[in-house]
Amino acid sequence: MKDILNIVDDDDKIIDQEPREKIHAQGLLHREIHVYFITPNKEVIFQHRAKDKDTFPDLLDATVGGHVEIGDSYEQAAVKETKEETGIEIKVSDLILINKIKKYSEDKSTDKINNVFNSRYAYIYRGDVKDLKIELGKALGFEIWSLNKLAFLTDEDKAKFIPYILYFATTELSNFIEDLKNL
């Protein structure tokens, strides 16, 4: 069965539905979410994508990421994807909205285009990274990175990340985490 997703306009209003493959081939505007697990020590947990993903394979990504399915809100998608991709059950009230952006990116290795409204959330994770369950076939595992390590990345480290995830993690996300109180 093909994944059918909503297509939205520049105001994030639903205007049509198309298969996921067509959306990424043609760069049609759609919705997705990212959830970043933040530890009480102000570290970020990244998901290592599987080698056969159709976009940005074998790179570090948000802890959780996914499309907003037909009929779901951004928050509902974040809760569902968190359970699917980590095995952790959360509630909408556990999510902290970081921001919502319109983002366009191209994966040169696969010729796929990601043109999205992306709602990005933080979730304070108090468990052990070893307790996170990878979604088979979609991820290789999880990695914890400190803010200090993110601030002083080597070129080798930078090459491990999806480019827009790297930019976000080293700018807006790091600033957001620094401002968090009472972890």
Q: Could you characterize the architecture of this molecule?
A:
The protein has 183 residues and is α+β, with helices and mostly antiparallel strands. The protein has one domain: Nucleoside Triphosphate Pyrophosphohydrolase (Alpha-Beta Complex), CATH 3.90.79.10. It has five helices and nine strands, in the order E-E-H-E-E-E-E-H-E-E-E-H-H-H.
Give a topology summary:
Elements lengths: L3 E5 L5 E6 H7 L3 E9 L4 E7 L10 E2 L2 E4 L6 H13 L9 E12 L4 E13 L14 E8 H5 L3 H4 L4 H17 L4
Parallel strand pairs: 3-8
Antiparallel strand pairs: 1-2, 3-4, 3-6, 4-5, 4-9, 7-8
Mean pLDDT: 95
C-alpha Rg, in Å? 16 Å
The domain tally reads 1
Structural class: alpha+beta
Query: What proportion of the residues form beta strands (DSSP E)?
Result: 35-45%
CATH topology: Nucleoside Triphosphate Pyrophosphohydrolase
Number of helices: 5
- The level of helicity is 25-40%
Q: Biggest sheet: strands, sense, closure?
A: 7 strands, mixed
CATH architecture heading: Alpha-Beta Complex
Low-confidence stretches: none
In terms of quaternary structure, the protein is single chain
- Please state the overall shape, judged from the principal axes of the Cα atoms: globular
Give the distance, in angstroms, between the N- and C-terminal Cα atoms. 42 Å
- Compressed to H and E, one letter per element, the order equals EEHEEEEHEEEHHH
The CATH class: Alpha Beta
Total strands: the figure is: 9
CATH superfamily: Nucleoside Triphosphate Pyrophosphohydrolase
Protein name: Nudix hydrolase domain-containing protein
InterPro entries: NUDIX_hydrolase-like_dom_sf, NUDIX_hydrolase_dom
Domain Nudix hydrolase: 28-167
Pfam family, one: NUDIX
